[in-house]
Amino acid sequence: MGKSQKKKSMRRHNPMRVPDSHLPKGLASASSTSTKNEAILPIIQKMEGPDASDRKWACVAVSNLIQNDSSTRRLLQGKNVVGALITRLTDNEDEVVLEAMGALRNLCIDGGYDICAEMYNKNILTILKTFIPKISNILSQYLEAPKTAPANAQRLVYDFADNVITTLWCLSETSNKALNAINSINLIPFLMSFLASRDKLTIAPVLAAAQCLYVLTDDNDSASVSLKSNAEYISCLLSIAQSPDQPANGKGKDINDHRLITLRVLSSGILRNISPLPQPSAASIVDIDKDIALPLLQPVISSVKLPEIASRAQQLVDGLSLEPQIEKMSLKNTPKSDHKSSSELELEQLEANLRTVQLALEILTGVCATLPDPSAGIEGETEIEDEDEDEDMADDDEVMDETNIEDRGHNNDSANPTVLSSLVPSLLSLIQPTSLSFPPLATSSIHPPTTTALSAIHISAMECLNNIFLSVATSPSPSVSADAEGGRKVWNEVWASLGVVGTELGLGQERRKEMWEIGVGVLWGLALVWKGTLSATEEQIQVLIRYCDGASDEITKVKCIGALECLAQYPQSITSNQVIANYLLTLLPTPSSPSPAGVESLIQAVSALIDIYSDETLPYDINFRQGGMLQTLVASVENVRKAVKRIDRKKPGGKDLRRRGEEIRDNLVAFIQYRRNLGLQN
């Protein structure tokens, strides 16, 4: 059973702030749902026109048109708006360059992977690299002598730098190829200069720099080594993470500005990414998790009230219809690209607050993921992989890390019952969906940014719960295991969440699917911790069986089988035991047909049946004796052997799976002999 360790190949993605996955592929569906078709061609024409004011207007118009509108964004993308905007980055008019950069940044944030990949393929990095020294020089002049700095210095340092940095961090999450290209720019000194000068700058570019650092140091040795090799950088990050939310002498900073908290959260995340800190140094004695992360992040996740935020967002969206719309204004009076109504500004603030909570949860998931991990889908010791297998696994796309978790020097405090009691109630609250948490079927949300932020919180909170209870199952805590009533409460809360999420999946419902995939893992962890004392309803068992049958990936099927295995071991649930065992038997091969399940599911099912009926004195063992299960197991042996033999050791994870399969195969033979001997004795 694995934790939500995100592998390198899975980390490099920029989630879409305004998804278009509810739309069928192609431009036709976007054209039929966009209300701004007629505006697109004039924008593209003006962007390439001879008049600088027209080019500037066109760049601004892109930002305005794509706002919360995935259909229009797709149509613009179909007209090569990305290529046109990249061309404008070399415009001879600074104002055009500034607005083009802002539009590209907005496209990155809203459009995610596809648009970022297009920008990378169209060589945007070549141009962005030229901006870094220019911004650095202007920043130095501005900090040393603000009055003698160029007239546009403030906008270059604030708006332009913010847009360039944000685009870079979005691009870095696009692919490993893009990340390597960005690594070659050596951005760390440039980004740290903003954090070091935070007291003299507004918060926006500082926050963008911190976000970029957080992304770049995530499982990226090049950036991590560059950062941790400089004692001043580490001292700066520690100072931010440990500081109270005071504005100091910072310009434009309000003590109540939530972005100051976000900056601290990001700094703690960066410090975790580069841990362990180099020794000997004062910083190396700091326990990042215990002394910084947990005390900072726990209040962040416990203070948010998602239903209230969703309700307020709904009110604001309803009120937007009463405010004048940008596209209805005269094009002669070009609005600024950052022109926002009061409702839009408040919606952005709500979204920013939600993103901070999601970030805190993401870091907490990492805190929990550093604890011991059982191997390959069963309770047991973790096996160390050979070096060549480690290399194979590094490219594996599976989210669940079923090999050993690297010891990164963090204490296992999240397995402590006191820590559990402080984290779990908040996490249970954060997995409960609101009215805006997921888009309606086959259409978009009334406010996509709020919906994507809410769903990200639910998923991250579920990931935290997954890792917490896996950790407890791996390193049992007697006081936790003895609290059967507490386990029942968590079990019911998780089911309540999944019940609201629902099983109606389809276009645009990818986040609902993620909730179920992670949620089943949480159910398995809970069933492991309270095995023998936790029972399930008939409906819950049937839901797990149906979900297992309908799952398209082996990992999810294994989690379902693992949960069912534990639930079958509640001594008094003889009927439930029979239902589960009969289902597991359907996954076995027969002499005339192979298993209908994949090999991982088959191995898990065989292991489950052995575990369930390993103690013949339990009340539910009557099902084994009266159901003819021994004969069914005997008939499956030969095809189980063949299935295990077909496992390719050369595939990622294949060596470990083959080893586990051979172990379960041998256990099956031994179990059959044991039960036969019992029959002879009786």
From TrEMBL:
Residues 380-395 have a biased composition (Acidic residues). Residues 1-34, 372-395 are annotated as: Disordered. InterPro entries: ARM-like (IPR011989), ARM-type_fold (IPR016024), SYO1-like (IPR052616), TPR_SYO1 (IPR057990). Residues 340-367 form a coiled coil. GO terms for biological process: protein import into nucleus; ribosomal large subunit biogenesis. GO terms for molecular function: unfolded protein binding. Gene3D superfamilies: Leucine-rich Repeat Variant (1.25.10.10). Residues 422-677 form the SYO1-like TPR repeats domain. Residues 1-15 have a biased composition (Basic residues). Keywords: Coiled coil. It holds the Pfam family TPR_SYO1. Belongs to the nuclear import and ribosome assembly adapter family. This is Armadillo-type protein.
